[in-house]
Design a protein that fits this description.
heterodimer, A: about 700 residues, alpha/beta, Immunoglobulin-like, five-stranded mixed sheet, 35 strands, B: about 170 residues, alpha+beta, Lipocalin, eight-stranded antiparallel barrel, 3 helices, about 20% helix, globular
Chain lengths: ~700, ~170
């Protein structure tokens, strides 16, 4: 098993004159004041022992670059004895300018003996003038559904031949999340899906779109994923243990494991799967040693190969002709190991530097954090101390930056996060940040999943599944690619013949599953934009996505509904459904509407001289709250004397003159209505072009 | 008796001629017919305006970035490919009628909606230009005879969800 030390310069400083060991006493008040001024967050025990993240000033960074390390170290480490000192994250040389923009070049990681408390090191370091800020290297958790459940073949109520999908993947008739005809369960509602069937008439993906899966490792050898993986050809055809492509990562053939600094290759995956103590399949802990369950499931939803006669279909998995999107495995969770700020930050840099345009992130800080500042800089939420994450945020901004655009049809890159599975009235962070998308989850009945977070910070809803399906079994969850190890024949058991039990397809539920639905739809959208020669900024594309939705609240009739919580299958809880209304984001994502929006919305033809009502359902969630505006030139051209208004999901407008103009619907999502300084909102808008004529057909036809 | 014979003979000759007019004697297969067919002036049915406007037409309206392709078929159905502003061509289908007396063209979409207006049709002498003047307003539409490009037909979008006849990709 190869171990890669990606740290660029792990510099042992013993012998450099810094021989004074750290003392944990004598905490002087002036030192504490220095620390308070520079420290981001607190240490409440959920940090990585023996490490500390420190940001130096620009002059010190310049000094380091010019070989001035000994001089710098003599001052910086005058009072401590670090074991290592290195840049916190590597950046491709070509992207140095962008890294500097976000100060990423100024972050370093100090390693020291784990017996020494990080606070004491922080205290010593904080008084040094070249130190701008200090951050504890905190742990980050995945948004996990915890359990995967085996797919035992087609449900008894579904024959293979009943598939409504155009691809010959044998299990896709069990994928209500792709097309829901209402037969998944007695209370299933037709249409409660991601709306992708019609979208496939236009595109089913494009290999130029690379989706980085920030998760457990993706099982790149899976029969339904192996052709969908991003391939670093230089490393695949290169030499072992050599950084063939010079990107700073050795043998990163399909991605990289940032937790243990392994290349993601067959040696690594096979080595771990050979462990004797593999967990049971039914109810396995997918974050256990194999570390490839959760990420493999997420990846399959986005890009499992369509039309290959095997397994499942996916949103952007192509048509079976090698034309699906590509999946890059950015492994930030590995077995029982959580990731850290430094590791997730490194993963964002890697994804940006190696071609990903979408970051699929089903993880976050499970704590309830109710404002952006606390997430970024730390603070207290009730009795809970929150550790800030400026480094991860800087790396995220680096990924999103237009200067690091990785697709010809998108200016910047885009990041999608899960909203969280704790039924909390807030999205978790980083998803709640106003420049990334946070995804809530609904089931086959359009109703919110009993586990989903909702409210401020949440942006859009997607199928996430729920436990209660046919006969109380798994069918209401999301079927995707999985890893079922060491049961009934052992791993790998690529048994996918029709009628046989597949060992490599599993059901899971959660916002972790909803999140890749949105990533997949965005991937489709970028593919289609490329096909028709269009280009959007991240903000434009987000606006089109957030308006390409269905009204999910119309199906929520209130009252209570029983759920089986994702963390327990032995009890049922009753949840008040009213609490979700208006709080699941802008609505339920719809791939077809999104592609139509990308294509460009045709002008609406109306009759001049009459008040007309325009159905908004083609343009946005008609139940949403919007500010309607028409610029002066549009008003003049159309002869608008009374401002248009929205009533009952229709735009009411009267044009007194024959002419043309644009109406803009503006709104925002995610804002905490009760706190001005709370979670920030994501603004979005949709433009409607109006052409007023002397006559108009009801259906918008020209004649 | 002789008179009777002459009468029967005359009648036989008459009937024979009559048969010949209705069902001319076909040449025997091994004997090519060298007789010159009887030349009769062909009676062309009077050409109607409806038949004259049948075909494929193209129209642009530059100030609102509109491009229209209209196919009027002899079975009185139409296909309307329209692009008003952004987006791909949208396809509408339906049926049309023409009042030959007033030259008024009307139609109905397949979804049951009538056209927004009826149109007075004017056809150029060479039949390559058609002007539609709506009964309301002054928005004359001038079409030129032009085949609908295959990329328009193949790339158009039927704005109907599941059940559309569009093939996958």
């Amino acid at each position: 098993m190869k171990r890669l030390f990606y740290v660029l310069a792990a510099l042992a400083v013993a012998g450099t004159g810094c021989n004074k060991s750290i003392q944990e006493d004598n905490l002087l008040t002036p030192l504490q004041q220095s620390l308070d001024a520079k420290l981001v967050g607190e240490n409440n025990g959920e940090i990585v022992p023996g490490t500390l993240l420190v940001r130096l000033d620009a002059a010190s960074v310049s000094q380091l670059e010019n070989g001035g390390y000994p001089a710098l170290a003599s001052e910086l480490f005058a009072d401590v004895t670090p074991a290592s000192f290195s840049p916190a994250i590597p950046v491709a040389p070509g992207n140095k300018a962008v890294a500097e923009k976000y100060g990423l070049d100024q972050w370093f990681i100090i390693g020291f003996d784990e017996s020494i408390s990080p606070e004491s090191v922080a205290l010593k370091i904080a008084q040094k003038p070249m130190v701008r800020s200090i951050q504890y290297n905190r742990y980050i958790q995945p948004v996990r559904a915890e359990k995967a459940y085996p797919f035992e073949g087609m449900p008894a109520t579904k024959a293979d031949s009943e598939s409504l999908l155009p691809f010959d993947d044998p299990y896709n008739s069990a994928q209500w999340n792709l097309v829901n005809d209402g037969s998944a369960a007695a209370d299933a509602v037709a249409g409660a899906d991601v709306g992708v069937k019609d979208a496939w008439r236009l595109t089913a993906g494009d290999p130029s779109v690379i989706v980085a899966v920030f998760d457990c490792g993706v099982e790149f050898r899976h029969e339904d994923l192996k052709d969908a993986m991003w391939r670093n050809e230089a490393e695949i055809s290169g030499q072992a243990d050599v950084d063939d492509d010079g990107n700073g990562f050795i043998d990163d053939k399909y991605g990289f494991n940032f937790v243990n600094c392994f290349a993601i290759d067959s040696d690594y995956v096979a080595g771990l799967l050979d462990e004797e103590d593999m967990p049971a399949v039914d109810g396995q802990d997918v974050t256990s040693k194999n570390g490839v369950g959760h990420g493999t499931h997420v990846a399959g939803i986005i890009g499992a190969t369509n039309g290959n006669g095997r397994g499942i279909s996916s949103i952007a998995g192509g048509t079976g002709n090698g034309d699906g999107v590509r999946l890059m495995s950015c492994q930030i969770f590995d077995g029982s190991s959580y990731t850290t700020d430094a590791q997730s930050a490194a993963a964002f840099i890697y994804a940006a530097d190696n071609g990903a345009c979408i970051a699929q992130c089903s993880y976050g800080n499970y704590n309830v954090i109710t404002d952006d500042n606390t997430y970024l800089n730390g603070g207290m939420v009730g009795d809970v101390e929150i550790k800030g994450s400026p480094l991860e945020n800087a790396a995220l901004r680096y990924f999103l930056d237009p200067a690091n655009s990785n697709h010809e049809s998108l200016e910047g890159n885009i990041a999608v996060f899960a909203a969280g599975n704790h039924s909390n009235p807030y999205s978790i962070y980083p998803g709640a940040l106003p420049y990334v998308l946070s995804v809530t989850a609904f089931g086959y009945d359009w109703l919110p999943g009993g586990y989903t977070n909702y409210g401020p910070g949440c942006n859009i809803a997607a199928p996430g599944g729920e436990w209660k399906g046919i006969k109380g079994e798994y069918d209401g969850m999301i079927l995707s690619t999985g890893v079922q190890a060491s049961v009934n024949g052992g791993y790998p058991g690529y048994v996918t013949d029709k009628g046989s039990t597949s060992k490599n397809y599993v059901y899971m539920q959660g916002t972790s599953m909803a999140c890749p639905h949105v990533s997949g739809v965005i991937a489709l959208g970028i593919s289609y934009a490329k096909k028709i020669g269009k280009k959007f900024t991240r903000e434009e594309l987000s606006s089109l996505l957030l308006t390409s939705v269905n009204d999910i609240d119309q199906f929520n009739k209130g009252g209570s509904k029983d759920f089986n919580p994702p963390f327990s299958t032995n009890q049922t809880v009753s949840i008040d459904m009213d609490r979700y209304k208006g709080k699941m984001g802008t609505g339920a994502v719809d791939a077809w509407k999104f592609l139509m929006a990308i294509e460009g919305t045709p002008s609406v033809l109306v009759k001049a001289g009459e008040k007309v009502r325009i159905d908004l359902s083609e343009y946005c969630n008609p139940a949403g709250q919007y500010t309607v505006s028409v610029d002066e030139s549009g008003k003049a051209s159309l002869g608008i004397e009374t401002d248009p208004v929205i009533k009952d999901g229709f735009l009411e407008i009267e044009c007194t003159k024959i002419g043309a103009g644009k109406v803009v619907l503006s709104s925002s999502v995610g804002k905490d209505p009760e706190r001005e300084d709370g979670i920030g909102c994501m603004a979005y808008s949709r433009e409607i072009s109006i052409v007023a004529r002397a006559f108009a057909a009801e259906n918008g036809g020209w004649l | 008796m002789r008179k009777l014979l002459y009468f029967v003979l005359a009648a036989a000759i008459f009937c024979s001629c009559g048969d010949k007019d209705i069902d001319p004697v076909q040449p025997e297969p091994d004997k090519p017919n060298t007789e010159k067919p009887e030349e009769k002036p062909e009676e062309k049915p009077e050409e109607t305006l409806a038949s004259k406007i049948t075909g494929e037409w193209h129209c642009t309206v530059s100030d609102i970035e509109t491009e229209i392709y209209l196919a009027l078929t002899s079975d009185k159905t139409f296909e309307l490919y329209q692009k008003v502003g952004e987006g791909a061509f949208r396809l509408y289908k339906g049926a049309w009628t023409l009042d030959e007396d007033t030259a008024m063209l009307t139609g109905k979409y397949n979804d049951g909606n009538p056209w927004g207006s009826g149109y007075a049709v004017t056809l150029s002498e060479d039949r390559n230009s058609m002007t539609l003047t709506p009964s309301e307003g002054s928005e004359k539409q001038t079409y030129s005879r032009k085949g609908i490009p295959s990329e328009v037909k193949e790339g158009c979008v039927v704005v109907v969800k599941s059940g559309s006849e569009d093939p996958l990709l």
